[in-house]
Amino acid sequence: MKLDYLTLGLIVLIGFTSCNKDENQTPEPITKANIIGSVNLYDESTTQIENSGMTIKLEGTEFSSTTDGQGDFTLTEVPFGSYTIVYEKSGFGTFKKFNLEHINTGSSTVVETPSLGQKSTTSVTNLTISSNANFPVIIGATTNPEGNQTNTRYIRFFFSIDPNVSHENYDSYLETFPANISPYNLNLSQASFDALDLTSGSTVYVKCYGESFWGNSYSDPDLNRDIFPNLNPTSAPAVSFVVP
Questions:
Q1: pTM for the whole thing?
Q2: What per-residue confidence (pLDDT) applies to 25?
Q3: CA distance 171 to 223
Q4: How many CA atoms lie within 13 A of 123 on its CB side?
């Protein structure tokens, strides 16, 4: 009987020790969580279109997702870290968001919703330089299709002292202009030259491209310049003028 009590005591002691170890065991650290977000998709103007079918991926990884009809997406069980998120769909320029900080907050990381436009179908077929009594430099841009009051086209101008000016090689640029007439005339005054940091007496070269209402430009830290994913690369040759 003593042996039985001793055996029973050992069993109880072992069980208590085992339970105590389980209670004091440190839980495994959380190292992953979902990244969720959504998109709003538009044509090259201001009309919202179907939000599904856009691929969302984390650059340099295997993580990817596709938006549903509401534009929502989920990247599942992503390790915590800093990521570049990439948005891609046929007919759209590639859009990127850099330095997405995915950290342990106890819930999913929510990405800010971008409004993304389709690539421009507007081509710039001719550029001219002229002047009048009010403006020392007038840049005329002819587009195809031609812009009018019911069919607004969008264009963007780039400037450089380099004759090889382009959307990838520029010193300055202007925001998107709605072209409701063709040719569209951009009037540059002395205030314009100052804003663009153009020096009097210098020769400046100009390039113009068709753009979308949602240009979706972003700054690329690797290339150290702004990217314009929705531009139409078909453009007339650059023109030049001497800054008054």
A1: 0.86
A2: 72
A3: 14
A4: 7
